[in-house]
Each structure stands twice: as C-alpha cells, then as structure tokens.
Amino acid sequence: MATLAQQDHPKYPPGDLAIWIFILAELAVFAIFFASYAFTRMNHVELFNQFQQQLDRDAALINTLALITGSYFVVRAVAAIREGASQICLRWLLAALGMGCLFLVVKSAEYSHHFSAGINLSTNSFYMFYLSLTFFHFMHVIMGMVILAAVALKARRGGYSIEDHTGVETGAAYWHMVDLVWLILFPLVYVMH
Amino acid sequence: MDRESTFSLRRCTWIWLIIMALTLITYSINRLGLSGLEITLGILLLALIKGHLIGAYFMGLNPVQGFWRWPVTIWLLLLGLLITIAFVLAEG
Fold first, then answer.
1. What CATH number does the domain containing A158 carry?
2. Which domain holds residue A142?
3. Residue A38 and residue B59: Cβ atoms within 8 Å?
4. Is residue A30 part of a domain?
5. Is B72 within 8 Å of A27 when comparing Cβ atoms?
C-alpha cells in the first residue's frame, strides 16, 4: 500500500533530477529577460507598441500551436514507453521533432524577413529585445530537438523499457520547458500592448 | 493499456485542446483590435493558466508532493506579478 501511495504521490518529478535543476536555472534566466523587456517597455511604450505591430502574428500563432502540439506528442511518447511500447514511443518522438522543425522553419522565415528589411539588434530597443529573446529561445528549441533526437535513437534501438525509461522523461521535461517559455514569450512580445 | 493510463492520456488530450483553444482566443483578441490594460492583463492571465497546465499535466508535477511540485507555479506567479506591475506602471 505504501509503495502504491508513493507512486501516486512521488517526491520527485519525472526524469532525472539534474535536468530539473537545469530547467529551474533556465526558467530564472528567461524570467530576467521577460521582466527586463516589460520594465524597459515602461519608458518606451509608444515605440514598443509601434514596432510590435510590425511582427508577423500569424507566424507566431503557427509556432505556438506547433510547440503545444509537439509537447502533446512528447506526452504520448512518455505514455507509450511507460507501457513498454518502444516503437510507438519512437513514432511520437519523431512527430514531436516534426513540430520542432516546423517551428524552426517558420521562425527562420520571420528572421529572414526582418534581416532583409535591414532590421538588426541596433535598430531600436524593441527589436533588440525581440531578436535577443526569440533567438535565445530558438537556440533552446534546437537544443530540445537534439535531446529528443538522441532519445529517439535510443528508443529505436530498444534502449528503453517499462522499468527503465528515465531518459525519455528527462528529454520530455526539457521539451516541455521550451514550450512553457514560449507560452509566455508569445503574448508578451507579440500581443500585449 | 490499463484504465489509469487511458484516463491520464485522455486528460492530457483535453489539456492539449484547452491550451490550443486559449491560444486561439489570445490571437483573436489581438486580431479584433481589442486593447486596454484589462484586456492586456486578461491575455497575461490566459498565458499563466496555459503555463500552469503545461507544468501540472504535461511535465507531470501535479501529483508530486513536496518542494518539486511548486517551482514552475512560483515562477509563473512571480513572472506574472512583475509583468503586471510593469504594464500597470506603464499606463500611469
């Protein structure tokens, strides 16, 4: 009974505890970035509102839906490996990677549009924050995809089982963090004015 | 697949759909040109709710007991508070 209760209410989150310490550090850094954006905006409200209107919200919406869906696919991958279904887990991980690729393609197209219009970090305070924040997050998406790809490779070789699937949960936790951060970044930078 | 897993997966599917719907609401508010401090803070609240759902259900923190249950929630609350203060002060 005690064992069952512990399984129902574990003391630690799923995955390796080290990734959670890393996630907390990442969240702290993003929080500083977000707060800096919001407090800098206080002194440049008109400028921030004006240039925010020039951003492609359709692209941002597609990217938000892609990351949320990617996170859901990772949830399915974890559920599959908890049942010992390695190949199904692999398929969900590949689907999540597909969502990650979609995000990178759409975001790259946005960057290409900005750079071809001569926009860079020095253009103004708004674009300095927009480019820095979104590129920092972009790098995290790539990092998350590398982790998911490594997990997928191991799943393909049958490296996870019902008893041992901490690696899948660890990769999943990082990917969800990338999604979580974007869920704040999207309204803050693209919508709130 | 046992009943507990099926239930948990079904719940996560609903959470996914709810987060997608809340995102479309955020996008629509912007497309309709609605603005003002209340609208802005409403959009922030929707984002914080979505973040909580990701942490609690997708990251699996909901059943966790003790310290590790709270960091994501505290992160969201602190961030929400800071952003709210900045936007309220910007209005004044």
1. 1.20.120.80
2. 57-191
3. no
4. no
5. yes
